[in-house]
Amino acid sequence: MAVAGKWICSIADIDETGGLQQSLEAVIDGLGYASPPIIALLFILMGGGLYSCRRRG
Protein backbone atom coordinates (compact mmCIF):
# COMPACT_ATOMS: atom_id res chain seq x y z
CA MET A 1 0.00 0.00 0.00
CA ALA A 2 2.88 2.35 0.73
CA VAL A 3 4.37 1.75 -2.70
CA ALA A 4 0.99 2.32 -4.34
CA GLY A 5 0.54 5.52 -2.33
CA LYS A 6 3.94 6.81 -3.42
CA TRP A 7 3.14 5.94 -7.01
CA ILE A 8 -0.21 7.78 -6.88
CA CYS A 9 1.48 10.81 -5.31
CA SER A 10 4.16 10.83 -8.00
CA ILE A 11 1.54 10.71 -10.77
CA ALA A 12 -0.65 13.38 -9.15
CA ASP A 13 2.47 15.51 -8.49
CA ILE A 14 1.77 15.71 -4.75
CA ASP A 15 4.60 15.61 -2.25
CA GLU A 16 4.68 12.76 0.26
CA THR A 17 3.87 14.99 3.25
CA GLY A 18 0.56 16.11 1.74
CA GLY A 19 1.69 19.70 1.48
CA LEU A 20 2.50 19.94 5.20
CA GLN A 21 5.42 22.25 5.75
CA GLN A 22 6.57 22.40 9.34
CA SER A 23 8.11 25.62 10.50
CA LEU A 24 8.45 27.45 13.78
CA GLU A 25 5.88 30.02 12.67
CA ALA A 26 3.34 27.28 11.91
CA VAL A 27 3.89 25.67 15.32
CA ILE A 28 3.44 29.01 17.12
CA ASP A 29 0.28 29.77 15.12
CA GLY A 30 -1.10 26.33 15.98
CA LEU A 31 -0.44 26.86 19.68
CA GLY A 32 -2.15 30.24 19.45
CA TYR A 33 -5.27 28.66 18.01
CA ALA A 34 -5.23 25.73 20.47
CA SER A 35 -4.57 27.61 23.72
CA PRO A 36 -8.01 29.24 24.34
CA PRO A 37 -9.96 25.93 24.26
CA ILE A 38 -7.30 24.25 26.41
CA ILE A 39 -7.46 27.04 28.99
CA ALA A 40 -11.27 26.93 29.00
CA LEU A 41 -11.18 23.17 29.54
CA LEU A 42 -8.75 23.58 32.43
CA PHE A 43 -11.01 26.16 34.08
CA ILE A 44 -14.00 23.85 33.71
CA LEU A 45 -12.13 20.86 35.10
CA MET A 46 -10.60 22.81 37.97
CA GLY A 47 -13.90 24.45 38.85
CA GLY A 48 -15.72 21.13 38.90
CA GLY A 49 -13.05 19.51 41.01
CA LEU A 50 -13.00 22.30 43.58
CA TYR A 51 -16.78 22.44 43.76
CA SER A 52 -17.15 18.73 44.37
CA CYS A 53 -14.46 18.82 47.08
CA ARG A 54 -16.23 21.68 48.88
CA ARG A 55 -19.56 19.84 48.92
CA ARG A 56 -18.06 16.72 50.47
CA GLY A 57 -16.04 18.53 53.11
From TrEMBL:
The keyword Transmembrane helix applies. The chain crosses the membrane at residues 33-53. Keywords: Membrane, Transmembrane, Transmembrane helix. PANTHER family: OS03G0100030 PROTEIN (PTHR36736). This is Uncharacterized protein. It comes from Dendrobium catenatum.
